[in-house]
Amino acid sequence: MKFNPANNIQDLQYFGEFGGVNPSISDSSTYTFISAKTMLDTFEGNTDGCYLYSRHSTPSNLYLGEALAAMEGAEAANVASSGMGAITPTILQICGHGDHVVSSRTIYGGTYAFLKNFTPRMGIETTFVDITKLNAVEAAITPTTKIIYCESVSNPLLEVADIKALSVLAKKYNLKLIVDNTFSPLSISPVQLGADIVIHSLTKFINGSSDSMGGVVCGTSEFVNSLKSVIDGASMLLGASMDSLRSSSILKNMRTLHIRIKQHSMNAAFLANKFEKEGLKTIYPGLESHPSHALFKTMMNVDYGFGGMLTVDAGSLEKANALMEVMQEKNIGYLAVSLGFYKTLFSAPGTSTSSEIPEDERKEMGLSEGLIRFSIGLDNDIERTYKIMKTCMLEVGVL
Fold first, then answer.
1. Angle between helices 244-254 and 59-72 (to 10 degrees)
2. What is the average per-residue pLDDT within 107-129?
């Protein structure tokens, strides 16, 4: 049967405590027990349906985790207070002193900084490679490697990882393949392609309203439970827990995710095609000119398109900044980091979300100063939006 992530979300049924159509919010930091023995059993992880302390879990967080696991087709999921609150404990749960990570070179700047600058303090080293070159990935694997880490569609260069091939490689060397799927929820389902662990920043497309931070780790029940262990679970002990009010809000927004992703993708595809025809250097996985267009098509859930992210090279940082300022003045969207909002968001990654990456490495990977990353919004009349954007581009000399 064809895997359809939106159906998996839709098929979940929750009722509130008093019959509400939304589950009740557990507004408590701690939970009471009828017997002392049950408290002991809960500490040791031997009870189901009992809650200990909100840093460990809450009913609201479990509802959201269940929906996200269903979306990815994973056994279980654990939510966190931010995307980095999901990424960092996942890596630290698997790796310890003397271990090694092979990572894509084009990843979110915060993840890059964690692997490049922070984990070496704990004796964990990382080799950054071009994830699209499988020979380079395999050559970087050492006897101490524990993880292959990548993004399904990379931030900000929109390189596409061959998840099936990377999964084969990971299994060959007994490694864990971790895929950050923040840019392509619903469009790509990494667990179905062989990934061991899937991570999202819920702050972005999944929540969709730029009012909440959140993260999630999806994987096997064994791994997710290990993250929550009171003895040695990295999520439990590092404390990046999600608030129940936020998890409840994100769960409600997930009900419209399939509608939003389709509109984001449709609008982005329209603009990418128009920009490319205007002669702009445009990167979008849905364009036949994208080097991984054919690969994306083999992995995608076709109903949800190629995603809402695209990049345009304005030629220089000065032109990029001028264009973004004019587009904001014309109410095309906002000059802001993040993505997945109902309005278009745009930023120059070299001076913002990827500024943690040294300049020489940015140049090597092709991240130019004039690159603008667009998160395309939910505009109803995208042709009207394009006409205004073209006017802005002519005004600042990008066209």
1. 30
2. 96
